[in-house]
Amino acid sequence: MSAVLESNAAATQESPAPGAIQIREGDWKAYLHSISQCKANKSIIIEQYGSIAAYQRACALAYLGRRAQLHGGVCSNRHPHIMTPQFIADLESSNRAARYARYPWLRALMNLLAEIELIQDQISTTNVITLVPAAK
Predict the structure, then answer these.
(1) Share of residues in the chain with pLDDT > 90 (%)
(2) What pLDDT, on the 0 to 100 scale, is given for residue 115?
(3) Same-domain pairing of 51 and 96
(4) Secondary structure, 3-state, 36-57
(5) Which residue has the higher pLDDT, 19 or 114?
(6) Total structural domains in the chain?
(7) Which phi and psi angles does 33 have, rounded to 5°?
(8) From the centroid of its chain, how far is CA 46?
(9) DSSP state of 83
């Protein structure tokens, strides 16, 4: 099992401190398994971490921390990335496509919000009463 909530009895010399969360780098299933332990071990988790939210935060930090330790966070010295305007535009379009594929209703909502802003801009320029006298 790659995600283990270690108890005091199961802690050995090789394992970290009791209550430490073990998640391998990039192991999303292990992260989800750790989070699913909240219901089964609620009293133990609250005793060790203080709250369920603190435990979930520790799980997330363990997952992300391992990744940052092994890969140096976001930046890589071996494989530098130059973020050109074209790269950023491509990243934006691919993220938008993935977001709209994941949430099909979001495209309609974004178009509706843009239309509302456009209408508000049109109304505000034609229907403004100024309290300051015009300059002569």
Answers:
(1) 22
(2) 95
(3) no
(4) HHHHHCHHHHHHHHCCHHHHHH
(5) 114
(6) 2
(7) -65, -40
(8) 24
(9) -
Shared domain for 101 and 36, answered yes or no, is no
Domain that holds residue 115: 82-125
Contact yes or no for 20/6 (Cβ under 8 A):
yes
Answer yes or no: is 134 within a domain.
no
Please list, residue by residue across 19-52, b when 16 or more beta carbons sit within 10 angstroms of its beta carbon and e when fewer do. bebbbeeebeebbebbbebeeeeeeebeebbeee
Residues 6+ apart with CB under 8 A from 71: 25
Q: Which residue has the tokens 């520790």?
A: 58
46 — phi, psi (to 5°)? -65, -35
Which tens digit of pLDDT belongs to each residue from 46-102?
A: 888 888 888 888 888 777 776 666 665 555 566 666 778 898 899 999 999 999 999
Rg for the chain (alpha carbons), in Å? Answer: 25
Cβ proximity of 101 and 61 under 8 Å: no
Give me 88's structure tokens: 């950023």
Determine the Cα–Cα distance for residues 122 and 59; give it in Å rounded to an integer.
49
Does the predicted TM-score (pTM) go above 0.85?
Answer: no
| 136 located within any domain | no
